[in-house]
Amino acid sequence: MTAAFTPSSPYQPLLRQIQNQRILSLAFPHLPADRVARKRWGNSWLSRGRPEHPPVVFADKVKSAMRLVALDGYAEKAGFHIGQGVAEARAMCPEIDVLPADPAADRALLEGLADWCCRYTPLVALDGDSGLFLDITGCAHLLGGEKALFDDLLARLFHLGVEARAAISSSAGLSWAVARFGSDGILAPDEAARVLAPLPMAALRLPRETIETLGRVGLKQVGDIVEAPRAPLARRFGATLLLRLDQALGREDEPLSPRLPVAALSVERRLGEPVQGEDDILGLTEELAMRLKPELEKRGQGGRLFELLLFRVDGAVFRIAAGTSSPLNEPRRVAGLFRERLQAVHEDLDAGFGFEILRLSVPKSEKYEVMQEDFSGTPDRERPLAAFADRVMARFGAESLLVPALSESHVPERAASFRPLTDLALMGKAEAPAQNIPAILLAAAARPQRLFPSPEPVEAVAEVPEGPPRSFRWRRTLHRIARAEGPERIAGEWWLDGEPAMERDYFRVEDERGRRFWLFREGHYGASAPPRWFMHGVFA
Fold first, then answer.
1. Are 439 and 453 in contact (CB under 8 A)?
2. What is the pLDDT of residue 15?
3. Using CA atoms, how far apart are residues 486 and 207, in angstroms rounded to an integer?
4. Residue 17 banded pLDDT, cuts 50, 70, 90
5. Cα–Cα distance, 116 to 122 (Å, whole number)
6. Taking the C-alpha atoms of 403, 406, 410 and 411 in order, what is their torsion angle to the nearest 10 degrees?
7. Tag placement on the chain: N or C end, fewer CB within 10 Å?
8. Are 204 and 173 in contact (CB under 8 A)?
9. Mean pLDDT, to the nearest integer, of 430-447?
10. Which residues contact 193 (CB under 8 A, 6 or more apart)?
């Protein structure tokens, strides 16, 4: 089967869809070595010329032996290879620089590069431990075309001290293969078969065992299987081989999962001169919010979560999020929220040599209710409250403002809780309609005015098997019961507590001095384990 499809081909509709997309694959062949080099010689070490140094390798324990897991360029040229033992490597080159592998640090650098690539497209996906996928469909024209975007990306990475290879094509599989094994940078949709044919089988992202098996029968290049009968290939080498081949040729779609959710609305400003001052950042933020407002109004929505991305000239990216208690589209209030956020993160926000790109996004929005002012010109009274809540939460965090809220639970300590004021509507939930409250909560006289956050153990003497307590000792004080009412059995939600959750039998008791308490028994008399008694609250 060839890559030239006729209109009657079953691949044709999908091929048209895939040809419309453009995927950029980034490969970082020496990511751990670049991380160490940037730390030793600065981010511009590549542009200043590689300093003379012994080969650098990274070792980790593999099957109870220290082996090489990553190399730099000098080590590759010297003949070292992944999986080689450290002792053998030292014998080959005694001055070799062996460093411990640090996957967490490598991952952090890769994620930092993914954030940095958001300047080109918000659709950035991680590709294993040493690569990225960028869906640049519809984005290239913003930077002067694919060639300009391609050259700008590689040039900037070079000046950031990161070696990279890249390729752009209509499928993620083809871009991946060319970025690692090919020489072309930008491919047209109809070049897939021609470009893939001379590449090794490893370009199809196959397991090592499959590649070795293919090599033993003489199938070493992709072109050896492009036109071969498919049924024998699938029977002998598995369906993965044909799937990877079809993905690279554009016959099968390969959806990418962006690393971060993509905001519905986003605006950005690219600056000719970087800015450093807080006032400049806030002024640009308000300007971006003004550009967002018409689109929010067109949709009849207001932002519930705003995110400001600051791209520093040295490649660092800062994400600052600000939530609101009600839908918001007023630019001045949006800028005010970020003024508070910048005050809160002031010590962690290092402007360095300045920020060159600012982007304001709306990851979360809701319907915006337009409130008409009365004849006195007084705005809706909830607006000042919402503005106050937003400023406090932006400065001190969402946990700084809490409101009581009822929960659908019969267990007393779960029936109510304090929640962050992320929505002004929560303020009314404590006075929810009776039909939404469990019936057991409606009997006000049956619940103590003071409920302890967690029950306290007591020593009780009770009638068996199900009778109320006759006396109990709590906080070193003995109380004799004069009157008692109960039991009232309450069981926890089985889907929360699980099988071992025990039932509780609650009693309202009054001692000889007229003090009233709320006790419960956990367990039953006659069982394998004796029951335990707890004090859960006191009445007025």
1. no
2. 52
3. 68
4. low
5. 10
6. -10
7. C
8. yes
9. 49
10. 2, 3, 226, 249
Tell me what pLDDT residue 374 has: 55
CA contacts within 13 A on the Cβ side of 171: 29
pTM above 0.85, yes or no: no
- Amino acid identity of 100? P
Distance CA 211, CA 214 (A): 5
Statement: residue 446 has pLDDT above 90: no
The pLDDT of residue 104 is above 90: yes
Query: pLDDT of 185-199, one tens digit each?
Result: 899 888 889 999 999
Query: Distance between alpha carbon 74 and the CA centroid of its chain, in Å?
Result: 36
CA distance 27 to 202: 14
Which token pair is 8? 């009657």
Cis peptide before 465 (omega within 30 of 0): yes
DSSP state of 142: G
- Residue, of 374 and 466, whose pLDDT is higher: 466
Spatial CA neighbour of 26 closest among 141, 100, 130, 99: 130
In this predicted structure, the answer to whether residue 286 has a pLDDT above a threshold of 60 is yes
Radius of gyration of the chain (CA): 33
- Give the separation between CA 462 and CA 162, rounded to whole angstroms: 75
- What distance in Å separates the CA atoms of residue 107 and residue 110, rounded to the nearest whole number? 5
Q: State the first-to-last Cα distance of the chain, in angstroms, to the nearest integer.
A: 86
pLDDT attached to residue 373: 57
Cis peptide upstream of residue 379 (ω within 30 degrees of 0): no
